[in-house]
Amino acid sequence: MEHEISHRPSYAQLTIDLGPGESVRSEAGAMVSKSPSVDVETSAEGGIFKSISRSLFGGESFFMNTFSAPDGGQIQLAPALSGDVQHHDLADETLYVQSSSFLASDPTVEVDTEFGGAKTFFGGEGLFLIRLEGTGPAFLSSYGAIDEHEVSAEESFVVDTGHIVAFEESLSFDVRKVGGLKSTLFSGEGLVCEFSGEGTVWTQTRSPDAFLSWLIPKIPQRNTTTTT
């Protein structure tokens, strides 16, 4: 599956050249354009119950689109938020992805939700994580640019929960407060995730939660009070 990621890192767009018989699966609404020769099929990926679980708990769309090209063709995809796109080839492995960061993958890669325990709920990432499992190319999206961090057994890695894009299954993690009560309340930092073991963590340079915290107070509130 040949691909190109352009307009990085602020407004990344994924262009995939599908060979004859190749296909790619994406989140609903991710398509920018396609060749007339590319067919699209919309389905509840993995069955009705897996789709409901992924939608309600993983923050992903209920439906997914599969683009196929019997004679070859091109498809362009883009994430909902302004940011980057990262390619990752899975080789019989599992990758955990935050809500909204899954963009596309080979149809052979299983996309499902994974219960992450109460710590993921309190970490602001939802009670479930998106799990990518199998072998094949996958594409992750972010809000802002993507950084890649290699975690070693000698030293753990701490990251704000709102900046996590994905991490490898080989890592263990623990969610905790950034410091004492004063730091948690007044530092502007919330909860952090501390990764340990050996593996890769992908982070994003912007946080959607932080942006909303900045934006919402600036939106004028509509006065709905009526007088008689």
What does this structure look like?
The chain has 228 residues and is mainly β. It has helices spanning 48-58, 118-122, 181-186, 208-215, and strands at residues 2-6, 13-18, 22-27, 31-34, 39-43, 64-69, 73-77, 85-97, 102-105, 110-115, 128-141, 146-151, 157-160, 164-168, 171-177, 191-197, 199-204. Strands 3, 5, 6, 8, 9, 10, 11, 12, 14 and 17 form a ten-stranded antiparallel beta sheet that branches. A four-stranded antiparallel beta sheet has the order 1-2-7-4, with no helix packed on it. The chain is globular, with a radius of gyration of 19 Å. The N and C termini lie far apart (66 Å). The relative contact order is 0.16.
How do the strands and helices of this protein lay out in sequence?
Elements: E1 2-6, E2 13-18, E3 22-27, E4 31-34, E5 39-43, H1 48-58, E6 64-69, E7 73-77, E8 85-97, E9 102-105, E10 110-115, H2 118-122, E11 128-141, E12 146-151, E13 157-160, E14 164-168, E15 171-177, H3 181-186, E16 191-197, E17 199-204, H4 208-215
Antiparallel strand pairs: 1-2, 2-7, 3-6, 3-9, 4-7, 5-6, 8-11, 8-14, 9-11, 10-11, 12-17, 13-16, 14-17, 15-16
Main features:
17 strands, 10-stranded antiparallel beta sheet, single chain, 4-stranded antiparallel beta sheet, 48% strand, globular, 228 residues, mainly beta
